[in-house]
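User: What would this chain look like folded?
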Amino acid sequence: MTATAETGTVSNDGKANDDSGRFVAARARKWLAPLPAPAAAPAATMPVIDLSGDTPGFPVAPHIIAAAANALDRGETHYTHRPGILPLRQALANHFAEDERIAYDPAHEILISSGGQEGLYVATQMLVAPGDDVLLADPCYSAYHDAIRLAGGNVIAVPLSPENGFVPTAAMLAATVTPATRLLVLVSPGNPTGAVISRDEMERIAAFAVAHDLHVLFDETYKAFTFDGATHTNIAVMPGMRERTITVGSFSKAYAMPGWRVGYVIGDARLLNPITDLKLALSICSAAVAQWAAFAALDGPQGSITVAHREIATRRAALLPALAAMGLPHHDPQGGYYVFADIRGTGRSSQECATRFFADAGIRVLPGDAFGQGGEGFVRFSLTAPAADITAAMHRLAPLVSTLMGDHA
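Assistant: Here's the prediction, encoded as structure tokens.
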């Protein structure tokens, strides 16, 4: 059997035709290449409205900042216990036991990482061996591709369907699994699509993973933000999944702490031990002050999440009807703070639309193909600006979209 991977090909013996070393060299050549010409700037009289970012811009709660200041006053500026301060790991264990109904030993099954991205990287390096195939949704956040390739693995794209809201299903996974598949990466809520995997579908995916003896890397970074009755379900709670699942998460989104760089990696000690070893080799431990701030975030008042959730809901209410009114189909995202809008009716590519939105209307969005081949024909709007700015952006964008569609008719 020969399958085509998103970033290379897989031969009959399951070995990649190019190794991770060549991938690193190729990336280096790309970074050293001359930068492309910048997109044409919008008119000077038109202030740019940025709907392309990854953080909503909310302030950090005062009690979190106070905890950081108190940690500095106490002299918490040295190495911590290597896997992270025990109070933070205990708070995470309590959270998982209470909210996700999964019991973990804080001493041996919870690792504090320097942000969710480091957690993703170290987990992938330990779960993927050279030549392994990894099932990964398409479209998805590009960091997963890079981590898999750096481990010497092959990305096997699982094409998502806009018709079902870009939700990965067990049937889709069964259609793409190969004999060399060893890992499944799941992200719920998803970026860029906002898709949330339902509990029923998660049960079917869990049965699929058990039947194929797969490990699962589950990213729950956006779990604090679900809408329209959707609920967050961690696959590790399903029968047979705790021992084969590694969960990665972050304090960046829920607690508005992207610059503090605190994340977590949680899983059965058998899987977590080698992941912890690699984390220690990379960065020894995560910043002490940031860990104490994260402990305060998790252990203290949660009102800031409620306020952030309400504000994102307000921004959704400004964006979604406006997109529908201008004829840009979209799936109403059930989680996160992104909207993946279908621009195929304009007759332009994702890159062309993003460029025109910026040059002609001063609106920054991300082209869908930045998230894989499955994102072509879409652009990602981020709910990272106040509702008034989103409304202003839609007023600017509507006549441009009408012109683009009229030109294509």
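The two ends are 43 Å apart (CA to CA). If you want, I can go into more detail on any region.
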